[in-house]
C-alpha cells in the first residue's frame, strides 16, 4: 500500500475496501465524533439559502466573535479555508530561508516552506523518553533560522509544550527577530486551553503567528474553516495574498454558530477524558507503548507491530487507523488513532492484535 500522507481519506478507504461510508469507522482523522454540534446543523439547514449570495469576503461577523473571545482586535485575525490555507499563506508572505521545527510533526509545514525555497532544520523529539521536547538543543538553533514552526499540542505525539519551554522559545525568538508560527489546531481539546493559548500575546510578540482550526473540534472538515492571529501588519499582508472569497458562506455560518454552543464544548471535554483514559489503559494491557496525550488522539507503538499488514487486516473490518510512516522518525511500529465513541473504541480494541510475550509488554509512556 502507498504510505499514507494524511488521515481521513474516506474516499480512498471506500474505493479500496468496497465499503460504503456508513460502514467505515475512521480512526485516522482526529475529528470529534460528537459533532457537528446540533446547533450548527440546525442553523445550516435554516440558512441554506445563503448560497445564493457571495460570502462576506472579510468574514466580519466571525472575526468579531473571535476577537471578543480572545480579547484581541479583529484586525489581528485572518479567517481561512481551513488551517492548511493559513499555513501556506504565512509561508508565502514571509518566505523564510531557513526554518526550524521538530520531528515528528505535521508535514504540511515543511511542504509549504519548501514551496517558498526554505531549508528545513529538524530537532528530533526524544521518542524513547515519551517524545520529550529537547528544549536546550532547540533553543540553541533559533538564532540561525528565520522562522520557528511548532504545533501545540504536537501532531502526531499529542503532547503540549510545557509553558516554561514555550516561553523560552518565544523570548529567544523575539531577541533574534525570528518569526514563530504556532499551530494550535488541537488546543480546543485540551482542558486548560485558555491558559495555554498564545493568541492573547500576538500583539506583545510582533513575530508571533497563531493558527487555529475549527475543523477538528466542531467536526466540520468538509466546510474548511480556521483562523490566524497575528499583528495587524502581518494579517494585512496575509489578506493581500489570499484568494478572494476564500471562506464560503456555510463555513462562516457554521463557525459563528459553533462559538455560541458552550454546552458542546463542556460535553466534549467530559467525553474525551473518559475515553482517552480507557484507551490508554486498554492498549497498555494489550502490550502497546502508548505515548502520553493532552488531546483527542494517541500515538501508539509496538516493536512487533507491522502497520502494512495490520492496516489491511483492519480495513477489511471497516476500521482505518493512521499509518505513521510519513512522519519523519517514525516507522512501521507506530500508528495513531483518534479517540472515538465508546462503542467504536471497543470495536477497535477487539480487532487489534494482542501482544502477551514478556519481551513485548508495553504501557503508558511517562513523559
Automatic annotation (TrEMBL):
<keyword id="KW-0456">Lyase</keyword>
<dbReference type="Pfam" id="PF00155">
    <property type="entry name" value="Aminotran_1_2"/>
</dbReference>
<dbReference type="InterPro" id="IPR015424">
    <property type="entry name" value="PyrdxlP-dep_Trfase"/>
</dbReference>
<feature type="domain" description="Aminotransferase class I/classII large">
    <location>
        <begin position="23"/>
        <end position="350"/>
    </location>
</feature>
<keyword id="KW-0169">Cobalamin biosynthesis</keyword>
<dbReference type="InterPro" id="IPR005860">
    <property type="entry name" value="CobD"/>
</dbReference>
<dbReference type="InterPro" id="IPR004838">
    <property type="entry name" value="NHTrfase_class1_PyrdxlP-BS"/>
</dbReference>
<dbReference type="GO" id="GO:0048472">
    <property type="term" value="F:threonine-phosphate decarboxylase activity"/>
</dbReference>
<dbReference type="InterPro" id="IPR004839">
    <property type="entry name" value="Aminotransferase_I/II_large"/>
</dbReference>
<comment type="function">
    <text>Decarboxylates L-threonine-O-3-phosphate to yield (R)-1-amino-2-propanol O-2-phosphate, the precursor for the linkage between the nucleotide loop and the corrin ring in cobalamin.</text>
</comment>
<dbReference type="InterPro" id="IPR015422">
    <property type="entry name" value="PyrdxlP-dep_Trfase_small"/>
</dbReference>
<dbReference type="InterPro" id="IPR015421">
    <property type="entry name" value="PyrdxlP-dep_Trfase_major"/>
</dbReference>
<dbReference type="GO" id="GO:0030170">
    <property type="term" value="F:pyridoxal phosphate binding"/>
</dbReference>
<comment type="pathway">
    <text>Cofactor biosynthesis; adenosylcobalamin biosynthesis.</text>
</comment>
<protein>
    <recommendedName>
        <fullName>threonine-phosphate decarboxylase</fullName>
        <ecNumber>4.1.1.81</ecNumber>
    </recommendedName>
</protein>
<keyword id="KW-0663">Pyridoxal phosphate</keyword>
<dbReference type="GO" id="GO:0009236">
    <property type="term" value="P:cobalamin biosynthetic process"/>
</dbReference>
Amino acid at each position: 500500500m502507498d504510505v499514507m500522507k494524511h488521515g481521513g481519506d474516506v474516499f480512498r478507504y471506500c474505493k479500496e475496501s468496497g465499503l460504503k461510508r456508513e460502514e467505515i469507522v475512521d480512526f485516522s482523522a482526529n475529528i470529534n465524533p460528537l459533532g457537528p454540534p446540533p446547533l450548527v446543523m440546525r442553523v445550516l439547514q435554516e440558512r441554506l439559502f445563503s448560497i445564493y449570495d457571495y460570502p462576506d469576503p472579510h468574514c466580519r461577523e466571525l472575526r468579531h466573535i473571535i476577537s471578543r473571545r480572545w480579547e484581541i482586535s479583529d484586525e489581528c485575525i485572518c479567517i481561512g479555508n481551513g488551517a492548511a490555507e493559513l499555513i501556506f499563506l504565512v509561508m508565502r508572505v514571509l518566505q523564510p530561508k531557513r526554518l526550524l521545527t521538530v520531528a515528528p510533526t505535521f508535514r504540511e509545514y515543511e511542504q509549504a516552506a519548501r514551496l517558498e525555497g526554505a531549508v528545513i532544520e529538524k530537532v528530533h523529539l526524544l521518542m524513547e523518553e515519551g517524545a520529550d521536547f529537547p528544549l536546550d538543543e532547540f533553543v540553541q538553533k533559533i538564532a540561525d533560522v528565520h522562522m520557528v514552526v511548532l504545533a501545540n499540542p504536537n501532531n502526531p505525539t499529542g503532547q503540549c509544550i510545557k509553558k516554561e519551554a514555550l516561553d523560552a522559545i518565544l523570548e529567544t525568538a523575539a531577541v533574534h527577530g525570528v518569526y514563530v508560527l504556532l499551530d494550535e489546531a488541537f488546543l480546543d481539546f485540551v482542558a486548560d486551553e485558555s491558559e495555554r493559548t498564545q493568541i492573547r500575546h500576538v500583539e506583545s510578540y510582533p513575530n508571533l503567528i497563531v493558527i487555529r482550526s475549527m475543523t477538528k473540534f466542531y467536526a466540520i472538515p468538509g466546510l474548511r474553516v480556521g483562523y490566524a492571529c497575528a499583528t495587524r501588519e502581518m494579517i494585512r499582508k496575509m489578506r493581500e495574498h489570499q484568494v478572494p472569497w476564500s471562506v464560503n458562506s456555510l463555513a462562516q455560518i457554521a463557525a459563528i454558530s459553533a462559538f455560541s454552543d458552550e454546552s458542546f464544548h463542556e460535553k466534549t471535554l467530559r467525553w474525551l477524558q473518559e475515553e482517552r483514559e480507557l484507551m490508554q489503559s486498554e492498549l497498555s494491557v494489550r502490550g502497546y507503548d502508548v505515548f502520553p496525550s493532552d488531546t483527542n488522539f494517541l500515538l501508539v507503538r509496538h516493536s512487533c507491530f507491522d502497520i502494512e499488514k495490520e492496516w489491511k487486516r483492519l480495513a477489511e473490518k471497516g476500521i482505518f487507523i493512521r499509518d505513521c510512516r510519513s512522519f519523519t522518525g517514525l516507522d512501521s511500529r507506530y500508528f495513531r488513532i483518534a479517540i472515538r465513541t465508546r462503542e467504536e473504541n471497543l470495536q477497535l480494541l477487539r480487532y487489534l492484535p494482542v501482544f502477551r510475550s514478556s519481551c513485548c509488554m508495553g504501557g503508558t509512556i511517562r513523559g
